[in-house]
Model the fold of this input.
Amino acid sequence: MANDDKFKKVISHAKEYGYVFQSSEIYDGLSAVYDYAQNGAELKKNIRDYWWKAMVQMHENIVGIDTAIFMHPTTWKASGHVDAFSDPLIDNKDSKKRYRADVLVEDYCLKIEGKINKEVAKAQKRFGDSFNKAEFVSTNGRVLGYQEKIDTILKRLGQSLEKEDLADVKALIEELEIADPLTGSRNWTDVKQFNLMFGTKLGASAESAMDLYLRPETAQGIFVNFLNVQKTGRMKIPFGIAQTGKAFRNEIVARQFIFRMREFEQMEMQFFIKPGTQKEWFEYWKEARMKWHNSLGLGKDNYRFHDHEKLAHYADAATDIEFNFPFGFKELEGIHSRTDFDLKQHQEFSGKKLQYFDHEENASYTPYVLETSIGLDRMFLAVFSNSLVEEELENNTTRTVLKLPAVLAPTKAAVFPLVKKDGLPEVAKEIIEDLKWDFNVFYDEKDAVGKRYRRQDANGTPFCITVDHETLENNTVTIRHRDTMEQKRVKIEDLKAIIKAEVDVKHWLMRMQ
Done:
């Protein structure tokens, strides 16, 4: 299936099975704003809980907080967002469409990367089992040429953005002959910066109202509470503060479904460390975060690190964990060594001392910060899009199955009576009553059992439990596994243990060890 077709299928399936709806759809919707439906809300919550347990519950030196969306406006002056939180935008004079200039260049490089993938695929087909991908990409002249072109383009882009040389960004677009994706026009305006923060007001009257911003990130709520948490929690360096919550960015070029939205949710952890130790902690968190991703079994080849060519002025190291979405490898999580910029800025603008007294060193210092920041909505899209597959079955039919990691699945088990009579629905509902204390479960008695199986396959439910006439004789039921379609006869009393073994968080997180 082509990537564009796969992505359309993902969007369609998300709506049809109650995962994601267009916001305000009855009023023709709101661009780049989405609602999580009944199953989507459960999947999103389960991803958030999986992150929280791994990040907070499993670390003695990391605690969680929940800070307000509204913050004092000076916060955003200190953080640099008022002066520098912007995207480079370019308009096409013919189509009247606006684009992010850096994304246009990155998409151009993705097309070159697609040529590399075609070369790899052809070689793999030619050499079969003896094919060594790593050796091929490091020695093949054509592949090396493509990669050198990508590296040269991205390096120039990064340097131009770092120097704020927007004229060179436009020159690069023109030299590469990048056209409007919709019309093919190359009639571009100059590149301009556009601030992404949403403004609002706080106050009872227009005359006395204070100008505020909706927070564009959750990190600043952690930084301004650094001392509060450190003192009340008696935290010792190194320690972390984690938070999940909504953030808002006025994305002019919002696109790709829930990948880039104006209202989104972040899962961030700021890890406070002794200056001079940032290099080792940067490597530690790179490894730790990749282990977390791989614990979900979405495929190691679908992840890669991408080191930043352009570093923020406060950072001394930065990398992204990129995921292979239906539209290519894109940023899923950022890991940044932020030095002491944030705490020093808030100390300067607030006039309050934000330092840590190290009893072992008998000295005070401003801690350095290692940040891990992942988009919850992007993680949702990564899990959902990777899990949706079309399978060819032995009887020459196909089935659509959403192979969500069982620990994240919205519904863990569906319970069916074989027929709607003979006391079978009553037994099925008794099973529901017992299981619902531990798992999110679903009862269905409509249509033939085969159709019910297919509905639950498409919905991502790991287990289907069927109550039949034999159940009345010996208290056993049939349990069917979503991924293998294997069916087994088991005792009703064993159902809870069977399901728990597959969906328990510990079972999945232990893969990180």
Remarks:
- The chain has a mean pLDDT of 93.
- The radius of gyration is 26 Å.
- The longest strand covers residues 328-339.
